[in-house]
Structure of 2-oxoisovalerate dehydrogenase subunit beta:
Amino acid sequence: MGEVTYIDAIRAAQHDLLRDDDRVFIYGQDVGQFGGAFKATQGLKSEFPERVLDTPISEDAMVGAAIGAAIEGMRPIVEMQFADFSSIALNQMVNHAATYYYRTGTSIPLTLRLPSGGTPGSGPFHSQMMEALYSHYPGMMVIAPATVGDAYHMLKEAVEFDDPVVFCEHKFLYRWLKADSFASDGLPLTQARITRPGKHATVVTYSAMVHEAVKAAERLAEDGWEIEVVDLRCVKPIDTDTIMASVARTGRVLALGEAFPWGGVTAEVVSRVASEGFHLLDAPPARLNAKDTPIPYHPDLWRAHRPTPETIVDALRKLLNF
């Protein structure tokens, strides 16, 4: 196939879904001729003119209309220009889409694509990680692919799934992350992956932080430490079995995330390890998140705000030396 990027995978998955299933359509702001804010739908309007639809600037109306279409048997993919803006549609997702099967027995096969996370110079309104907010509510699956192959295959599986799925795609990975193909190892949608095996400590993470964790592990390998990196892939439901098996091997765990520290995925990981795997631990479970402040605009401040390989190394050294 040649070199393909993370956003190539997202575009190709949508193309193949539109081609293979007449029930699939794409709905969002500027997703048509313009090709989306990040060009994730570029070229799809010309090939599927009736099923790649531009919307007014109303996230609430977009998701509400998609819920109605899903009730009638369609499989909508809704693109938010930025994950941050999806809060305007929160009521539609958590009070309507997520509860509809429970209330009526009718499935809502709606996929909400959220361009997530920070890039230099994006500031507080275009950089947030929203996965914990959606994971709080029952009735939805929340996934966060960290590889090119997962971006392709997990998006296809999300659209084929019969319940609402929040698909958190990281903007920083769009054109930076590359692979030879869209090949995948065939893991089930909700199963975590051991990205890097190790025996001295476990890092449990997801999305773009997987790559930062691997960089940190490579630096610590120079000192003889073998760090295991677990890529959650799916944060709701969370693969507790893979986490516990890794902690059983290493005895130490660092839960790592780019999101804000209060609550969230890393808190859930630590809570589960402490309550279900306390006997496995040789050190207290640790967490590392972004700072508990709005996300700064200046690139240097942004780098100081989120975890980096350097801060991950520091956190792991404290854990290893406990």
User: Anything to note?
Assistant: Residues 6-20 form the longest helix (15 residues). The first strand starts at residue 4 and ends at 5. The chain has two domains: 4-179, 193-320. The chain has a mean pLDDT of 96.
